[in-house]
């Protein structure tokens, strides 16, 4: 039990934690880049991530008598996932497709979005309570908060959903 109280045991566990945070942050980003078709970045992240993983797992397996290493490993894994997600949110790479449904102000809302440089396709549809406007808008992920603000300033009751997309070809994409 004295072993667990030693500075070396704590330093080892902290090192494993740091390795796993780094490893899992890179892994989370790698998966997201794979999904977005960014092969080069995904390869580089996968290469570095696998080396870091091997170093971390070797450290755990070489000292299984130290429960702090297991705690560091698990905590690093969990923390790395969250940090990877936070980094990816900040990078905001890729495109999002927004569906905006407005029961009263669809045409005006489309014009506001077009004035801001966004491509909008208007579709007339029938909702539960009658006719509605459905606006189809594809934007860069970094522009989503701006579009949401524009929508809710013009029509606070508009219903907005989003989905990840990978642009294939042609069409209008705001640069």
Features:
single chain, 175 residues, alpha+beta, Alpha-Beta Plaits, 2 domains, four-stranded antiparallel sheet, 6 helices, 58% helix
How would you characterize the overall build of this protein?
The protein has 175 residues and is an alpha+beta fold. The chain has two domains: 2-91, no CATH class; 95-165, Alpha-Beta Plaits. The chain contains six helices and four strands. It has helices at 2-5, 7-35, 39-61, 67-91, 106-115, 144-154, and strands spanning 95-102, 121-127, 130-140, 159-165. Strands 2-3-1-4 form a four-stranded antiparallel sheet, covered by helices on one side. Helix 2 runs antiparallel to helix 3 and helix 5 (106-115) packs across helix 6 (144-154). The longest helix is centred in the first third of the chain and has 29 residues, at 7-35. The radius of gyration is 24 Å and the shape is elongated.
* String of helices and strands: HHHHEHEEHE
Tally of structural domains: 2
Rg (CA only): 24 Å
Q: Order of strands across the biggest sheet?
A: 2-3-1-4
User: Taking all residues together, what is the mean pLDDT?
Assistant: 89
Topology at a glance:
Elements: H1 2-5, H2 7-35, H3 39-61, H4 67-91, E1 95-102, H5 106-115, E2 121-127, E3 130-140, H6 144-154, E4 159-165
Antiparallel strand pairs: 1-3, 1-4, 2-3
Helix pairs in contact: 2-3, 2-4, 5-6
